[in-house]
Amino acid sequence: MSEIKSALTAEEWANGRTEKGYTFNRVGVDVWFGSPNETDPLVMVQNRHAMAAICLHGQPFGFTREDVIALRAMQDRINFEALDRGIPSVKDLADRIESLLPPEHD
Predict the structure, then answer these.
(1) Which residues neighbour 51 within 8 Å (Cβ) at sequence distance 6 or greater?
(2) Which of 34, 56, 59, 64 could pair with 23 as two cysteines, CB 3.0-4.6 Å apart?
(3) Distance between CA atoms of 37 and 20, rounded to whole angstroms?
(4) Which residues does 23 contact at the CB level (< 8 Å), separation at least 6?
């Protein structure tokens, strides 16, 4: 399996600024993004769920329908142990990932 690098370092998360100077700030459910070029406008994202789906689609660090199928195949074997420890179920994880995928085509 290939190693996927973290999207942001701990320092970038804490400072709200990427190494290339892009800024981000979460205010409630909204996210504001800024460019290192101060003449560029700030961009506010109100629907983070939709934005996440759009940004992850087709990326090597995103999710696929095959990922959901694999999780659902494992869910019965894993859920008993997870539920005993109060961990969200594999079904919940598969559902959250599936919500980020484009609709299936018939």
Answers:
(1) 31, 45
(2) 34
(3) 11
(4) 16, 17, 32, 33, 34
Are 30 and 38 contacting, i.e. CB atoms less than 8 angstroms apart?
Answer: no
In this structure, how many other beta carbons lie within 10 angstroms of the beta carbon of residue 16? 14
Written as one string, the DSSP assignment of 28-59 is TTEEEEE-SSTTSPPEEES-HHHHHHHHHTT-
Please count the other Cβ atoms lying within 10 Å of the Cβ belonging to residue 65. Answer: 12
Using one digit for the tens of pLDDT, what is the confidence trace for 47-62? 888 888 988 988 988 9
pLDDT of residue 69: 92
